[in-house]
Structure formats: structure tokens, C-alpha cells
Design a protein that fits this description.
This protein is mostly helical. It contains 5 helices and no strands. The protein starts with 7 loop residues before the first helix and ends in a 6-residue tail after the last helix.
Length: about 100
């Protein structure tokens, strides 16, 4: 049986290039995250807090508008979503006839 065992190197060679691209992007994103984290830690804490707040707010409202939030955030977004516009509501309103 050991003669027919596939080695790790053979498995790696048969992987499609798309997988290698995704692995490369993930490694690059990790390195970029570490680099940015170190830069932020050297910044003034108030400015860093404001930047984190603005980025978090933009991401959160994007989730509310497009309804593509992570599953663990769905209960919170469902409570907040009726108070803000959403992509589905805009499309539905565009499909209706105007009132005379």
C-alpha cells in the first residue's frame, strides 16, 4: 500500500492555479494587516480611533444597505435595517408606477 500513497508534493502539483492565487492574496492581506496594525499603533490614539470608527461605520452601513452581513450580525442588522434604506427597497420602488 505505501507504494500507491500520494505524497504531499504530488498533491500540491495537482492543485489548480486559482487556489495558488487565493493563497497568495490571503498571505498578502495578512502581511498588509500586520503592517497597517503596526502603523496605527504608532499613531495618535484619538486619530486612530476616529479612523477605525469611520471605517467600521461605512462597513456596517454597507451591510445594512446590501444585506450581506455575516451570519452572526444578522439579528442586529434585522432590527436596525427598517430604519435605513436598502438596495431591495430601492429596486422595488423603481418598479412601481408613480402616483398621479
Amino acid at each position: 500500500m505505501p507504494l500507491f500513497a500520494v505524497t504531499a508534493w504530488e498533491k500540491i502539483q495537482t492543485m489548480p492555479p486559482a487556489i495558488w492565487l487565493k493563497i497568495g492574496i490571503a498571505i498578502g492581506a495578512f502581511v498588509l494587516t500586520i503592517f497597517l496594525f503596526r502603523r496605527v499603533m504608532k499613531m495618535n490614539k484619538i486619530i486612530a480611533s476616529i479612523v477605525v470608527f469611520v471605517v467600521g461605520t461605512v462597513v456596517f452601513f454597507s451591510w445594512v444597505y446590501n444585506r450581506n452581513e455575516p451570519k452572526f450580525m444578522t439579528p442586529i442588522v434585522e432590527r436596525i435595517a427598517p430604519f435605513f434604506p436598502s438596495a431591495g427597497a430601492y429596486t422595488a420602488k423603481q418598479g412601481t408606477q408613480p402616483k398621479p
